[in-house]
Every structure is written in structure tokens, then in C-alpha cells.
């Protein structure tokens, strides 16, 4: 076997030595990179023929940060502080040539250099708090000496990534080079003086400004322990020397690295990269999409149109008549007006996007569209009729997408003569804001159509998750079980307020009943009525939500659902709901019992993970981590818990299995134990093990 090629090479340009980092795709700080950098810096420092060093990541790169896959393994020397320390201690000037991302540990390496030159493509930032940790190789201590306490708190706690001009303005880089960056770095290197940030004092700042920066960071922390630790470590630098600050930072980093929150955030980070690896797409090329269309200009259709306009597409908006089409334009105009009012865009950007919007009431307007998204009412008859009409007007090769959230994609595709062109694009409301996009694959969906959907998601800034076809796909199928068991808890003795409080204590921004009121109880009501004829009679059914709808309580839009709402939208408990619940219990002879927050949390987590295990076994979800991405990005599952499958794994699958058996006794049919869950417990394995061993491997799209 050939010896492993080092990712670090050295070239000489007279007395200047260039240390090249080449570890595709982003020069992550793997063990090989760390060892190679350490060896190179030490050997060049000892070489009397070398007067200066340049660190280069190659065209379009520097170092994008840690190798997160290694962070899940036992620590392996050399550690990053040793590498950064060697650069700092080098007796010869070291120039960092930043032609791309210098993030996290890459930024810490750059800060240890004496001069930082960036191209226009440079991106600089200490982004560790996004992963539940803080910089651990001197990043906080060097940064604070460069920009002061208040600015350091803001940059670190927000995990802000600065473009070249912004980095220059705050002093993170010393110059932006317009020509060839490496050539300029080599030319400047011999005249560079040593400038160790470690030797600088912490600038004297305004205590009020520093306190305001800390308060703002804590307000936006949302329970992330790393934020408070970053503030503590940065603030302490005012009263400590560099070595003491370094030790304080490292201790905090090591403690946070092993925290549940950091593990959950690392899990999601890696899950995002895995989600676009889909079996069967190796070599598939996305179809060209230069124009798009949306059928249906209601709330969802308008949001989808905005998402497409924001991505740069011209959009045709089709409705049943001109009046409905103009109403859709007004909705889109209102969405953009809110963005202008909030300062997200200006009037010029609004006008530019609206100029690319073409309202129409004739399907003939769709003849040249490359992508058509149907966003009509959630009714199979309505949707199949639309797709029959599309079959006659859409050009060959056009991608035909449906925004259905529950309906059978196979049946919708069968309404056309080209089922290979049909794909599900399940957006989440509000469609222009919510990050999740469920990409649903039917039996005949062509690989290049699926690749097009994934490319579209990337262009729109969405997180795609590929799902197989079933009632509710990945997310709504699990959510239906989650909601059903929340209603069982209420019928058995908990109040809606208690269930929501338990979920909010777990980390949800809103509990399930408050969310239902916001969405509208009539939506789930219609879905239940559609399923009534095929519902297993052995499945427990709670009629409380039906009773609320049938008395006119549809949620926030009627100022009453599970809660009562005042004119300002504030929710309160409603005696009328308490009475309806009591009557429903009495009708079934249920003696209400009490539940703790922990019991409610465990039950609802268990049923989500159990249904997720069924989806994995059936191939509806490719990976447990895909389910986690769906729930974190589409259903408000707390990021710090990593998604329902990760959270179940962290709690212990034997505990989940025991709880599912109790849930099955409570819920009957549909709540039975997933065979995969039972198998994993019997074998002492977890979802992560199953994912590694069983999940199909596909190429990057």
C-alpha cells in the first residue's frame, strides 16, 4: 500500500516558504492537516535560509474549520492549540493568504499569523457557538485584543461570518488584495514585521457598551450554554494575562465539547451534509430551470411565489380568474411590504422582484415554464384535475411539482402521461421563510427531476429532505401520531396548557395545542374526516378537537380554539374548553389522572421516534438524521435536542421501547412498537448504528 500523501506541501520562492494546505473539499482541520502544519512551521522556523512564511489554502480556500467527524471520536494529537501556538511562537513573520473561508479553527490559525491578507472571496469568523462550543485555540483571547470586548462578544456569540470588506473594517484582516492573492502575499512577506496579537493588551472599552453587548447576546442565546461561557471568557480577558485567558478558554471549550447541546448541534451540522446524498442520483444532472410558475395564489401559493422570486426566477402566478390572480399579487405585495418595513429589503428590491411576477388566469401562460408548482387546495380531485390540465399545456421536460402535504403522490402523477416529470415539493408555511422543503419521490420520478428539486432547494436557501410516498410523508405522518397522543394525554387528565407547558420546557417555542390554534383547527379536522372511512376501528379516537371545530372554534382566526384569544392575540385558558374536555372524558368513563412534565415529554418523544423507526424500515426516510432535520427545520423541534431520533438515542432506546409499550396500551392500533426499534434494543444498537450500516449511500448532488 502506498504511503498516505500529506495534505501539506511546501514550495520555496527565494527566502519565502509557502505552506500549501490541500485537503478537499474545504481544508478542514483533520489530524493530517494539523500534523502537517505543525511539522512545516517548526521545520521552516529552524531553517536559516527561510526569512518568512506564507500559509495558503489554494484558490478559493483557506481553512473552513474543524473536521466535525473527528470531533465525535476520541481526541487525537496534535491538538489545534499546539498548532496555533507554534505559528504564534515562530520567530519569522507568518502571512495568512485568505482566498476563501477562514472559519472557526481556520480563523484561529489566521489570528496567530502576523499579517492577514484576503481576496474579495475571503470569509472570516469564529463560528463555534453555532455548534454549541466556543473557540478553543486562543480565538477569543486574540480577537479581544484586536477588536475589544464588546465587539468580540458580538462576533463570537453571533458566530458572525464577515465578508472581506467587513473583516477589513473591524481589523480581522489587514488588507483586501484585488490581484493574485498568493503572489501579493509572497511579495509582501519579507518586509512583514512580527506582530503577535497574544502580546497586545486588551483595549480599554466602554463598560456600558460591553454590558449591552453581553445582554444582547444572552437574549438571543435561546438556551445555548456556549453563549454565556463565551461572554465569561471574553470578559475575563480584561483582568488576566494571555496565558491565563488561554487556559480559561480551553477549559470552557473542553467542557462544552462534551455537552448534550454541542453533540446535538454537531449531529445536525453533519445531517445537513448527508441529506443531499440520495441513492440513484449518481451522475444525474439537474434540468435547466430559468422560469417558474405557481398555480394557486392563496397564502401558501403566495409564499411559494415569493420564495421563487427571492431566488431570482421570473414567476407566473395562475389563478381561476383575473380577480383571484390580482388578489394573489396583492398578497405577495403585502409580504414584500412587511420585509421593507422590517428593513430586510428596500423598495428597489421589492420593485425588482414584483417586476418578475406575471399574474394569469389562463393555463396557456404556462406553456414555456420550466418548473410548475401546484399549490391548490388539499383535495385529491382538485389536484388531479390540475395535473390533467397541465399535461396538455406544459412543455416536454417541464418539472411538474405538487405542494401536497398528505395526498398520494402516485395518484397525482398518474393523472399525467409523464409521471417521471412529477415530484412533490412540500413547502412549510410561511413558505418564503420556513427552511424545510420535503422533496417527495414517487415510483416513477426521474433522477434528473429529483436532482432538479434538490438544486432548487439550494438556490432558495431551503433545507431539503427526500421522502418516500405515504400519507403525510416524513413530517406530517409523525406529526399526526404526535398530535394524536397529545390528545390522548388531554383526554386522560392533562390540560392543553399542561401539555404545552411541558413541550415548551423541553425547548419548543410553542406547544402543540398553541400551534394547532395558529394553523387553524379546521385543517386537521378536514384531514381526519378524509381518513375516517379507512381508520382502523381498533385505533383510539379522541373527538375533542372535532367538538371544538363543530362549535365554531377554529383557533386564532376565530379568537378561540384550544385557548381563548384577545384582540392582541394573547392566549388564555378557556372554561368552555375545560367543559368540553370534561364532557368527553365523562362520555367514555375516563377518570382523569395527573401527569408530570417529564411523563408528557417522554411519551411524546417516544411516539415520534417510534413512528420514525417505522418510516426508516419502510424506506420513507433514508436516514434517522433526515427525520431530525425535518422536525428541527419544519416543526419547531428544539435544535439543542438534535431532533426526535437523536433525542431518543441520547435518552436511551430501551427507555423509549418501554414507553412505547405503555403508549400502545393507551392508543391501540397505530401505536404498536416499530419492529426496528425492538430489534435495535435487542441488539444493543442505536439509530446512528442502523444509519451507518443500512442507510443507502448516494452521490452528492
Automatic annotation (TrEMBL):
Residue ranges of every copy of the 3-hydroxyacyl-CoA dehydrogenase NAD binding domain listed in the record: 292-469
Biological pathway: Lipid metabolism; fatty acid beta-oxidation
Reactions listed under catalytic activity: a (3S)-3-hydroxyacyl-CoA + NAD(+) = a 3-oxoacyl-CoA + NADH + H(+)
Residues forming coiled coils: none
PROSITE patterns assigned: ENOYL_COA_HYDRATASE (PS00166)
CDD domains given in the database record: crotonase-like (cd06558)
Domain (3-hydroxyacyl-CoA dehydrogenase C-terminal) ranges: 472-565
Species of the source: Xanthobacter aminoxidans
One Pfam family matching this protein: 3HCDH
Family, per entry: Belongs to the enoyl-CoA hydratase/isomerase family.
Gene3D superfamilies associated with the record: 1.10.1040.50, 2-enoyl-CoA Hydratase, Chain A, domain 1, NAD(P)-binding Rossmann-like Domain
Localization terms from the record: Peroxisome
Keywords, in A-Z order: Fatty acid metabolism, Isomerase, Lipid degradation, Lipid metabolism, Lyase, Multifunctional enzyme, NAD, Oxidoreductase, Peroxisome
Main location: other
This protein's name: 3-hydroxyacyl-CoA dehydrogenase NAD-binding domain-containing protein
Amino acid at each position: 500500500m502506498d504511503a498516505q500523501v500529506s495534505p501539506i506541501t511546501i514550495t520555496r520562492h527565494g527566502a519565502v516558504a509557502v505552506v500549501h494546505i490541500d485537503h478537499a473539499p474545504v481544508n478542514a482541520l483533520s489530524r493530517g492537516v494539523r500534523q502537517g502544519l505543525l511539522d512545516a512551521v517548526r521545520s521552516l522556523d529552524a531553517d536559516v535560509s527561510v526569512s518568512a512564511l506564507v500559509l495558503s489554502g489554494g484558490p478559493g480556500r483557506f481553512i473552513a474549520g474543524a473536521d466535525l467527524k473527528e470531533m465525535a471520536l476520541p481526541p487525537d494529537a496534535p491538538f489545534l492549540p499546539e498548532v496555533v501556538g507554534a505559528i504564534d511562537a515562530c520567530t519569522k513573520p507568518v502571512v495568512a493568504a485568505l482566498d476563501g473561508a477562514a472559519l472557526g479553527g481556520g480563523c484561529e490559525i489566521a489570528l496567530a499569523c502576523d499579517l492577514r491578507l484576503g481576496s474579495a472571496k475571503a470569509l472570516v469568523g469564529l463560528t463555534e457557538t453555532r455548534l454549541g462550543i466556543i473557540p478553543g485555540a486562543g480565538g477569543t483571547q486574540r480577537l479581544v485584543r484586536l477588536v475589544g470586548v464588546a465587539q468580540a462578544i458580538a462576533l463570537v456569540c453571533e458566530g458572525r461570518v464577515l465578508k472581506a470588506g467587513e473583516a477589513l473594517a473591524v481589523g480581522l484582516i489587514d488588507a483586501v488584495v484585488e490581484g493574485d492573492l498568493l503572489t501579493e502575499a509572497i511579495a509582501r512577506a519579507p518586509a512583514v514585521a512580527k506582530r503577535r496579537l497574544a502580546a497586545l493588551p486588551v483595549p480599554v472599552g466602554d463598560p456600558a457598551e460591553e454590558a449591552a453587548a453581553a445582554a444582547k447576546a444572552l437574549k438571543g442565546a435561546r438556551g445555548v450554554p456556549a453563549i454565556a461561557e463565551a461572554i465569561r471568557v471574553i470578559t475575563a480577558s480584561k483582568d488576566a494575562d494571555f496565558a491565563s485567558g488561554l487556559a480559561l478558554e480551553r477549559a470552557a471549550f473542553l467542557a462544552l465539547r462534551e455537552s448534550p447541546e454541542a453533540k446535538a448541534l454537531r449531529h445536525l451540522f453533519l445531517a445537513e451534509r448527508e441529506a443531499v446524498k440520495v441513492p440513484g442520483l449518481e451522475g444525474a444532472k439537474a434540468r435547466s430551470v430559468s422560469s417558474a410558475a405557481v398555480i394557486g395564489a392563496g397564502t401558501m401559493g403566495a409564499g411559494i411565489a415569493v420564495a421563487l422570486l427571492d431566488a431570482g426566477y421570473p414567476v407566473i402566478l395562475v389563478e381561476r380568474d383575473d380577480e383571484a390572480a390580482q388578489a394573489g399579487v396583492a398578497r405577495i405585495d403585502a409580504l414584500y411590504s412587511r420585509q421593507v418595513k422590517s428593513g430586510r429589503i428596500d423598495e428597489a428590491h421589492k420593485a425588482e422582484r414584483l417586476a418578475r411576477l406575471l399574474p394569469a388566469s389562463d393555463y396557456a401562460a404556462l406553456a414555456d415554464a420550466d418548473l410548475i408548482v401546484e399549490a391548490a387546495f388539499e383535495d385529491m380531485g382538485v389536484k388531479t384535475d390540475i395535473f390533467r390540465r397541465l399535461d396538455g399545456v406544459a412543455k416536454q421536460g417541464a418539472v411538474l411539482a405538487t405542494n401536497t402535504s398528505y395526498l398520494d403522490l402516485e395518484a397525482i402523477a398518474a393523472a399525467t402521461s409523464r409521471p417521471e416529470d412529477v415530484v412533490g415539493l412540500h413547502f412549510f408555511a410561511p413558505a418564503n421563510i420556513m427552511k424545510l422543503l420535503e422533496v417527495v419521490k414517487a415510483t416513477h420520478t426521474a433522477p434528473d427531476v429529483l436532482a432538479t428539486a434538490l438544486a432548487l432547494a439550494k438556490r432558495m436557501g431551503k433545507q431539503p429532505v427526500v421522502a418516500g410516498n405515504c400519507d403525510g410523508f416524513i413530517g406530517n405522518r409523525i406529526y399526526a401520531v404526535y398530535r394524536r397522543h397529545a390528545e390522548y394525554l388531554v383526554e386522560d387528565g392533562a390540560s392543553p396548557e399542561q401539555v404545552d407547558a411541558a413541550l415548551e420546557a423541553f425547548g419548543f417555542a410553542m406547544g402543540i395545542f398553541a400551534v394547532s390554534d395558529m394553523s387553524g383547527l379546521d385543517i386537521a379536522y378536514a384531514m381526519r374526516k378524509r381518513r375516517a372511512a379507512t381508520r382502523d376501528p381498533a385505533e383510539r379516537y379522541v373527538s375533542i378537537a372535532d367538538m371544538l371545530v363543530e362549535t365554531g372554534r377554529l383557533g386564532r382566526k376565530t379568537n378561540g380554539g384550544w385557548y381563548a384569544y384577545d384582540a392582541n392575540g394573547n392566549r388564555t385558558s378557556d372554561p368552555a374548553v375545560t367543559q368540553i374536555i370534561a364532557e368527553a372524558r365523562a362520555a367514555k368513563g375516563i377518570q382523569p389522572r395527573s401527569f408530570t412534565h417529564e411523563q408528557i415529554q417522554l411519551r411524546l418523544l417516544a411516539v415520534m421516534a417510534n413512528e420514525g423507526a417505522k418510516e426508516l424500515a419502510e424506506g420513507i426516510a433514508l436516514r434517522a438524521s433526515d427525520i431530525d432535520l425535518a422536525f428541527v427545520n419544519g416543526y419547531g423541534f428544539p435544535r439543542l435536542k438534535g431532533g426526535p431520533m437523536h433525542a431518543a438515542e441520547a435518552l436511551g432506546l430501551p427507555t423509549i421501547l418501554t414507553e412505547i409499550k405503555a403508549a400502545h396500551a393507551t392508543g391501540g392500533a397505530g401505536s404498536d412498537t416499530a419492529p426496528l426499534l425492538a430489534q435495535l434494543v435487542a441488539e444493543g444498537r442505536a439509530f446512528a448504528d442502523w444509519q451507518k450500516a443500512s442507510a443507502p449511500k448516494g452521490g452528492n448532488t
